[in-house]
Design a protein that fits this description.
The protein is of the alpha+beta class. It folds into 4 domains: about 100 residues, Reverse transcriptase/Diguanylate cyclase domain (Alpha-Beta Plaits); about 60 residues, 3-Layer(aba) Sandwich (MutS, DNA mismatch repair protein, domain I); about 55 residues, Orthogonal Bundle (DNA polymerase, domain 1), CATH 1.10.150.20; about 100 residues, DNA polymerase, Y-family, little finger domain (Dna Ligase, domain 1, 2-Layer Sandwich), CATH 3.30.1490. It contains 13 helices and 12 strands. The N and C termini lie far apart (about 60 Å).
């Protein structure tokens, strides 16, 4: 049997999207460290590259960000502006392919296996798209080009900002082997720490483990780790993809039972979840708390509201309400997760507000 044709996938990721829009629209911010969001007891929703030099990152408490970068400029988010630019970018994508899978307002997968304009290669298509984005929006985008989604996403981060990276099928395993596991999409900071504690720091280390070893250590996730470290990802670009929920979770190195410890960790999870919610340009009416106990018993609790959750304070308050219903907890908790569902897109005329008091 003939092997199926190799897909040509581009992952396009805008550079510091929210902050770059603010710097474009307010020339006084150009070249300055900028944080979108923040405010009193708020969190950073996005940071410019000038701010990242000081270690300022999204989901970081604004107090910490200001301490790291005293000259940091906080600006209120304008989701109507970000969404308008996102529509411009997607219109550019649509000129090159119908197979577009948005991940958020500022990134998407494109399947360009069909060379609609006869440009000759996926690299040429990616270069044309990046040039169009710069000309039409005044912003820069980075792109990764490869044969599958996993490697394309890795590649888009390789030469940021304003960069392009192409990874061919025959280069993939060697490229993956050279990367720290923390770079892999689907492996969060906690999982990366756990892997590193086992002596698994790079893709090469992961490639040394058999499927049975990975399953024994990570359960069902072991199958995914086995495939991605070998550059195997057969997921197609789905143009009809629409998120049903947006969430974040953290696995702790220590099991927690104290209400104070759990409240502190839930605040961190809420910040991570809100960052993803904001990037996705959605809001929702149902908040779900996920709890995994020390013996791996998994439970969830949810609450729906008449009106959408429109800020971090609302999400956090709902999460704490659900958590309080579990006290006193019967045993240690090793994981907390918080998610939002019953989603709708943000109304462009009513932007979400980040950085409210909690």
């Amino acid at each position: 049997m003939n092997a199926p044709p190799t897909r040509k996938i581009i992952h396009v990721d805008m550079d510091a999207f929210y902050a770059s829009v603010e710097q474009r629209d307010d020339p006084s911010l150009k070249g300055r460290p900028v944080a979108v969001g923040g405010g009193h007891r708020g969190v950073v929703a996005a940071a410019s590259y000038e701010a990242r030099v000081f270690g300022v990152r999204s989901a970081m408490p604004s107090v910490t960000a200001k301490r790291r970068c005293p000259d940091l400029v906080f600006v209120k988010p304008r989701f109507d502006a970000y969404k308008a630019v996102s529509h411009q970018i997607r219109a550019i994508f649509a000129d090159y392919t119908e197979l577009i899978e948005p991940l958020s307002l500022d990134e998407a997968y494109l399947d360009v296996s069909e060379d609609r304009h006869g440009l000759g290669s996926a690299r040429a298509i990616a270069e044309a798209i990046r040039a169009r984005i710069r000309a039409d929006t005044g912003l820069t985008a980075s792109a990764g080009v490869s044969y599958c989604k996993f490697v394309a996403k890795l590649a888009s981060d390789q030469n940021k900002p304003d960069g392009l990276c192409v990874i061919r099928p025959e280069q993939a395993q060697r490229y993956i082997a050279s990367l720290p596991v923390g770079r892999f999409h689907g492996i969060g900071p906690r999982t990366a720490e756990r892997l590193q504690a086992m002596g698994i720091e790079t893709g090469a280390d992961l490639q040394q483990l058999s499927l049975d070893e990975l399953r024994g250590r990570f359960g069902n996730s072991g199958d995914w780790y086995y495939r991605i470290c070998r550059g195997i990802d057969e997921r197609p670009v789905r143009s009809s993809r629409r998120a049903k929920s947006v969430s974040a979770e953290r696995t702790f190195d220590t099991d927690y039972r104290s209400p104070d410890d759990l409240r502190r960790e839930l605040d961190r999870v809420a910040g991570l979840a809100w960052e993803r919610i904001a990037r996705s340009g959605v809001t929702g009416r149902t908040v779900t708390l996920k709890v995994k106990y020390s013996d791996f018993e998994l439970i969830s609790r949810a609450k729906s509201f008449a009106d959408p959750i429109t800020d971090l304070a609302g999400l956090s308050a709902a999460g704490h309400y659900l958590l309080e219903q579990l006290h006193p907890v019967p045993k240690g908790i090793r994981l907390l997760g918080l998610g939002l569902s019953n989603l709708t897109e943000v109304n462009g005329s009513v932007p979400l507000q980040l950085g409210l008091e909690i």
